[in-house]
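Lab notebook, bench 4. The sequencing result for the construct came back, and we need a structural model before the next group meeting so we can plan mutations. Quick request posted to the team channel:

Model the 3D structure of this chain.
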Amino acid sequence: MFNFNTFKQKSPQQRFLFILGLVMLTMYLVLGAALIFWKDIPFEIKPTYRILFGLLLIVYAVIRFFRLINQKDN
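Done. Here's the predicted structure in token form:
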């Protein structure tokens, strides 16, 4: 799945983009979890839609994770 040796061989630009992808993945996960578990959110949204949007963000983060890990070198 993920080979650490190929990560070492990447160019600095590819490593930066990989780290940026991990940061964005973390941001989507945190935002999705915050939408699901934060009850007193500072804007008005129905709880059903809030939970659905949070789950959508988490699913999107998982999809991005697998695309990031299975990325082929050009």
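The helical segments are 4-9, 12-37, 47-69.
Will bring this to the meeting.
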